[in-house]
Design a protein that fits this description.
This protein is an all-alpha fold. 77% of the residues lie in helices and 0% in strands.
């Protein structure tokens, strides 16, 4: 299962369909997928620097998720 399917279960089909004709949405989704991959690649974290990175990734993912949902509401 991909990052979009994992995070937007019931909207995944619509997102995939709209990505093909909306370059901005496609770019946001690519960024989302890349950051999700980075987050999943982090090992179990014990030090503060790594925890901060994990927190920053989650914050960025939340922002991208909001952008994706906003794009879906357009038109």
């Amino acid at each position: 299962m991909g990052a979009i399917e994992e995070s937007f279960a019931e909207l995944a089909g619509e997102i995939q369909e709209r990505r093909s004709c909306d370059c901005a949405l496609d770019e946001i989704c690519k960024d989302f997928e890349l950051l999700m991959k980075d987050l999943h690649a982090l090992p179990a974290i014990r030090d503060n620097g790594a925890r901060r990175l994990q927190s920053d990734l989650r914050d960025s993912l939340e922002g991208l998720k909001e952008e994706i949902l906003k794009k879906l509401q357009e038109t």
